[in-house]
Amino acid sequence: MAARVGVQKPGLVSIARQGALGAVIGLVINLLLYFVGAAVGAFPPDALTPMGVPVDITSIVSISLVSTVAAIGVYFVLTRLFNIARARQVFIVLAILVLVGMATTPFGITNIPTLQIILLEVMHIVLGGALVYFLIKV
């Protein structure tokens, strides 16, 4: 008789580890983009977010951390609701929808230069791509 072999679902620790790895890689690349952009004047202090603060290192790091925690949480829940293959598919679709939705956020910044819009869009893709790439490897 053949025994049924159950597919183990990834644990929170392994998902968090992969998410953290993706976040670190994405954040390092985004900080490099920020420093290059700041050196050429793409992040002026008068370009203010709707909350009245300029886009600086603090906001980039904090948004990256919040996004990482959200991605880890969503992926963990999806792995509990679906088999791993389906969870990956749903997560990728959700990530694409979130990235498309986030594409409009730089336009809410007052006095924003075109180069800053481009850099912020690239930063969204970098972090989102890194999180998806590493999380679906679990």
Structural class: mainly alpha
Helix content range: 55-70%
- Strand percent estimate: under 5%
Please indicate the count of domains. 1
Q: What is the averaged pLDDT score? A: 94
- Quaternary state, please? single chain
Structure, described:
- The chain has 138 residues and is mainly alpha-helical.
- It has one domain.
- Helix content is 68%, strand content 0%.
- The protein contains four helices and no strands.
How do the helices and strands line up, and which of them pair or pack?
Blueprint: H1 12-39, H2 57-81, H3 84-102, H4 114-135
Helix pairs in contact: 1-2, 1-4, 2-3, 2-4, 3-4
Key terms:
138 residues, mainly alpha, 4 helices, 68% helix, elongated
Short description:
This protein is mainly α and 138 residues long. It is 68% helix and 0% strand.
